Every structure is written in C-alpha cells, then in structure tokens.
C-alpha cells in the first residue's frame, strides 16, 4: 500500500475503462481522470503552472493567486495553494456547477462572483477582466490558464501514462476549453513517436473552431462570443473538430452512467457522443481513448437532474435512445464477427 504525504502526490496513474468494442477489433476506452485529487484532470496543469511560476520568480513564498475559473482549474489551484502556503481568490459565476463552487469554498478559497449575461451563458469575458484587475490591485500572481505554457506542459505525464498503459493510442478525443488537456497530451504523445489522431469537441454555441456563437450549458468547455482564444488551443495539434449540442452531450453522460455506474461530466458526455458516433469510421483494431475530464458527481444538480434539463429544454429522450442504439449496434457487430465462417461447399465437376 502506498502512503503519501500530500494529496497532490496522488495525481496521475488514473485507470482506463473499456466502454465499447466493435466486431472490427476497435475498442473505445475511457481515461478516468476524475480519479485524480479534486476529481479532474485540471489538477495536473494547476500544479505545473504553480511549479513553473515558483521556478521563475513570478510566485513568491506566501503569495496570492487570482484566477477566473468555471471550477475544475480553480479546485486544482486551491489544492496546490493550500499545500504550498498561498492564498487563492477565484473569480467565478453562477454558470459553474454548484458542487464545484462548494468544493472551492470547502478548501478555503475566496470567491468573487460576477454576473452572468442575461441569456444565462458563461461570463468568461467578464471573469477574465475582473481577475486581471484584482491581480493588479493585489499584486497577485495571475496564471492566465488560457495562455500559460504550464497548462499544456502539465499533461506530459498523462501522455507518458497512456503509452505505458496501452503501448499506442490511435485516436484521442477530448472536450476543449483552454485547449491544454488535448493539445498538451497530443504533443507529448507525438514527441514520443506516436501517430495519434486528435479529435477536439466543443459545445454548439462555442466559437473556438469557428462555429456561430450561441448559448450553451456545458461548463468547462468551449468559449462564448467575444472571448479571445488562448495560445493553448494549438491548432497544429488538432486533426478534427466537432460540435456537440447540450442535449447530445448530456445524453451521452447519462447513458454511460446507467450502463456502467460511472458518472462523467457533461463535456465528457459530448466527447463520448462523438466517439460512439464515429467508432466504425476508424481503421479496424484502433485504440480510441476519450479523456474523462471530471467527475459526474459534480453535476448531480444539473446534468443528472431531469428538472434542470427540462428548464433549459435539453432533456432529449430520443438522443438518449440513439446513444443506446450505438452500444447495441457495436455489441451485435462483436457477436457477428465471432460467428464461425461457413465451410466452402465442393461443387462436382
């Protein structure tokens, strides 16, 4: 049994769960990053950003950190800050899942709230403005996760883990917000010689890959209208990009919960939706991995609550049935592939 001195020492070495298999030998695996401390992959990059800031003198002992967050990065920064003796102020809004805000409060974070737009979408632009102003006023360190190289650098370990666990990864699929998790992991994989194809997923209404702006309820992924896309969205590391509606993303998450007992976040549901929809499109024998960015337990009051979904008109039973049919189709393909081939019949001369 391993005994560690700090919770951050438990970051990494997260397990893989096979979600689906096809008759062509392709398998879909979930990298369960919610098994990290704070329940998210974002703790990897939060730690790295702090380490790099300490190393180059931007963050001094006993210092103050200020960052806008939709929750997961904030929880990662909160953990590292309390372990290393820093104060942390998170600039947040009510678009974030309530469970994430409660986690931040539980770890002693000072929360500064900004108002959401009248359409109910995220206040990403306003949060960023307020955080920059507060950091300047307080003389605090502002990581700026969208443009901080430590964000992408924090996923070098994830790339190494995947190669150690699997040997090869043919396709990596992930929801994209800051871009660090997908682009950083792909960069690490390719630096090690892998020829992994990368698939970015963002909500319908997000503008990262040029879609029209609109309202979306997936938290932690995408960028709303007017938000400047940061340097961690490295388009040279993205082969394909897909938009997923709230209804489809939440359907993906809810069906996975009912089939496996594993709860994933809504944005991961979107990545799973894309993976299931395209699984037959990949070459036979492919290993396809979805990064599960965070735990679904953070969304019991939203993604997994029928009333919340109905209020926002994103509870779609047909979408859930489509996801179920994909599972049924892939299971049937495995049974068909396993049938013995009929013996050839000799034809007399």
Would you give an account of this structure?
Its cofactor is pyridoxal 5'-phosphate. InterPro entries: Cys_Synth/Cystath_Beta-Synth, TrpB-like_PALP, TrpB-like_PALP_sf. It holds the Pfam family PALP. It comes from Kibdelosporangium phytohabitans. Residues 8-292 form the Tryptophan synthase beta chain-like PALP domain. It contains eleven helices and nine strands. With 349 residues, the protein is α/β, with parallel strands linked by helices. It folds into two domains: 7-36 and 152-329, Rossmann fold, CATH 3.40.50.1100; 42-149, 3-Layer(aba) Sandwich (Rossmann fold). The strands form two sheets. Strands 1-2-9-6-7-8 form a six-stranded mixed β-sheet, with helices on both faces. α6 packs across α7. The chain is globular and about 90 Å long.
């Amino acid at each position: 049994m391993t005994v560690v001195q700090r919770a951050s020492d438990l970051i990494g070495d997260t397990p893989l769960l096979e979600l689906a298999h096809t008759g062509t030998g392709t398998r879909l695996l979930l990298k369960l990053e919610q098994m990290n401390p704070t329940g998210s992959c974002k703790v990897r990059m939060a730690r790295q950003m702090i380490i790099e800031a300490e190393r180059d003198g931007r963050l001094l002992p006993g210092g103050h950190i200020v960052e806008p967050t939709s929750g997961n990065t904030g929880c990662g920064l909160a953990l590292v800050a309390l372990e290393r003796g820093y104060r942390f102020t998170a600039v947040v809004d009510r678009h974030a899942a309530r469970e994430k805000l409660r986690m931040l409060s539980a770890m002693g974070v000072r929360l500064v709230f900004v108002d959401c737009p009248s359409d109910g979408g995220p206040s990403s632009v306003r949060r960023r403005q307020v955080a920059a102003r507060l950091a300047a006023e307080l003389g605090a360190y502002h990581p700026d996760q969208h443009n901080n190289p430590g964000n992408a650098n924090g996923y070098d370990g994830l790339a190494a883990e995947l190669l150690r666990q699997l040997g090869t990864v043919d396709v990596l699929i992930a929801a994209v917000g800051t871009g660090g998790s997908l682009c950083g992991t792909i960069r690490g994989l390719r630096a090690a010689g892998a020829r992994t194809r990368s698939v970015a997923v963002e909500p319908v209404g997000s503008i990262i890959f040029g879609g029209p702006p609109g309202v979306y309820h997936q938290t932690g992924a995408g960028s709303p209208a007017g938000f400047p896309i940061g340097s961690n969205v490295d388009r040279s590391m993205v082969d394909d990009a897909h938009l997923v509606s709230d209804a489809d993303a939440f359907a993906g998450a809810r069906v996975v919960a009912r089939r496996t007992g594993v709860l994933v976040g809504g944005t991961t549901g979107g990545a799973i939706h894309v993976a299931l929809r395209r699984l037959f499109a990949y070459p036979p024998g492919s290993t396809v991995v979805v990064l599960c960015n965070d735990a679904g337990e953070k969304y019991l009051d939203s993604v997994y609550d029928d009333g919340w979904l109905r209020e926002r008109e994103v509870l779609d039973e047909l979408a859930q049935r489509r996801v179920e049919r994909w599972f049924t189709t892939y299971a049937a393909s495995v049974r068909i592939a396993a049938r013995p081939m009929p013996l050839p019949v000799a034809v007399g001369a």
